[in-house]
Design brief:
This protein is of the alpha+beta class and 228 residues long. The chain contains nine helices and nine strands. The protein has a single domain, classed as Jelly Rolls (Sandwich), CATH 2.60.120. Helices cover 40% and strands 24% of the residues. Strand 5 and strand 6 form a beta hairpin. Helix 6 packs across helix 9. The N and C termini lie far apart (37 Å).
Length: 228
């Protein structure tokens, strides 16, 4: 069902994932007090399945990585399958809902604009214009490509749980690499803004990305193949 702009405004706007979970009566104990960036293992969130959220309107970006789970993502115009290897992205204020029927391994990242500008790049939307796309990002990846994302979100999750006083800055740098991977897989044909040279920080993390994955990818693939 497609809603008009007026009807969309009638849905409560949730400013962060903690506020949404409180509304949905879902656990929030693993969410930091500052919930501008949150990463979660969805198995820890949804202990009772199947689960259906109903439509909601969040004021934050959402990135879902499904390694071994089943369900669906919905907007007012689209219905997408949550199946092994699927990656899903949605921007703020898009009406959406989700259903989970089985969760073995799936991760969710939610982040707001302030965190992106403060910890990733103050010109985040110039460097990654796909974040403002009108469409929902969705793709089912093969094992090799999915592993690239798994390495990254697991490292981000490790930093999120740490007591490192520079945790946000570290997460921000890792998130740059994640955005570069999303851009490569989802929006490689998106026209670039004309600039004299590639931003230094993006160039730096392209090099860091290559080094980061060189020795780790093979081990993750072996773990992936253990899934029945």
């Amino acid at each position: 069902m497609k809603f008009t702009s007026t009807q969309k405004k009638e849905f409560k706007l949730f400013h962060d994932i903690k506020e949404l979970y409180e509304h949905l009566n879902l656990p929030t104990s693993d969410i930091h007090e500052e919930s501008d960036f949150v990463i979660q293992d969805l198995k820890d969130v949804h202990s009772k399945l199947p689960y259906s959220s109903g439509l909601f309107r969040p004021d934050f970006f959402s990135f879902v990585f499904v390694k071994d789970s089943f369900g669906s993502f919905k907007t007012d115009t689209l219905s997408l399958a949550a199946i092994p290897g699927s990656v899903y992205f949605a921007k703020p204020r898009q009406l959406r809902s989700y259903i989970w029927t089985k969760i073995n391994h799936a991760s969710l990242i939610t982040v707001n604009e302030k965190f992106l500008k403060d910890n990733v790049d103050k010109n985040i939307f110039r460097e990654f214009p796909f974040l403002l796309t009108e469409t929902v990002g969705y793709k089912v990846l093969d094992q090799k490509d999915y592993v690239d994302f798994e390495i990254l979100y697991e490292q981000i999750h490790k930093e999120y749980r740490s007591e490192n006083p520079y945790r946000k800055r570290v997460i921000g740098r890792l998130f740059i690499v994640l955005l570069l991977r999303l851009k490569d897989h989802f929006w490689k044909d998106l026209p670039e803004l004309k600039t004299n040279q590639e931003p230094k920080i993006v160039s730096l993390f392209k090099k860091a990305y290559q080094m980061f994955f060189k020795n780790k990818k093979h081990r993750i693939i072996e773990r992936f193949e253990e899934i029945p």
